[in-house]
Inverse folding.
């Protein structure tokens, strides 16, 4: 139980950071920073990179995260594990609820300067950023805790982590999110991971083979 509250305290910190960034953006306290970063990133666009980031925008969407996450949950369950699939399922549920609730509460318009992939829904938090950690971040956690050789686990984890960073950058690159949407979404995604780990670690279950 002591470990649960240790994890829970970190959940509160990261979720609190996300909520605070949303408030800062909602009240216009970061307008200059958001606009500066948006123009800077859009100015870095290149015709060679555009197809990759458009593809990331399409297939790193929340609905695809859920589908991929459920596939991973089923695979882990078939391997007679229960902690990992339950952690991932809880992480995705928290992520989905957080995204929909906070978008409705904050109701912040998206940037419209130059969108490579048109999107008109509310901006905060970035659902892609939340999902990047709630799904792929959790997978990295599983890999690092696995019995794979360290060289293998580190290599796979670094590759996935780079993909996570590319998802975050993608939201700015294609012009559909402000900087604080991405940072807030990432913080909330990490919080979803942490609370899922906390809940499952506090549960007793059958020993895994």
């Amino acid at each position: 139980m002591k470990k649960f509250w240790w994890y829970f305290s970190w959940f509160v910190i990261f979720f609190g950071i996300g909520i605070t960034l949303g408030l800062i953006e909602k009240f216009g306290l970061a307008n200059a920073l958001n606009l500066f970063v948006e123009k800077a990133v859009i100015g870095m666009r290149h015709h060679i990179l555009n197809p990759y980031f458009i593809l990331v925008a399409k297939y790193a969407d929340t609905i695809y995260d859920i589908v991929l996450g459920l596939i991973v949950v089923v695979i882990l369950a078939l391997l007679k594990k229960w902690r990992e699939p339950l952690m991932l399922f809880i992480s995705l549920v928290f992520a989905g609820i957080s995204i929909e609730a906070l978008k409705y509460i904050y109701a912040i318009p998206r940037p419209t300067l130059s969108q490579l992939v048109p999107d008109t829904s509310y901006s905060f938090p970035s659902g892609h950023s939340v999902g990047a950690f709630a799904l792929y971040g959790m997978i990295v956690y599983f890999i690092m805790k696995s019995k794979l050789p360290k060289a293998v686990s580190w290599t796979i984890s670094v590759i996935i982590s780079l993909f996570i960073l590319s998802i975050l950058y993608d939201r700015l690159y294609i012009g559909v999110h402000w900087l604080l949407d991405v940072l807030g979404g990432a913080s909330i995604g990490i919080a979803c991971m942490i609370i899922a780990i906390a809940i499952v670690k506090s549960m007793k279950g059958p020993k895994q083979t």
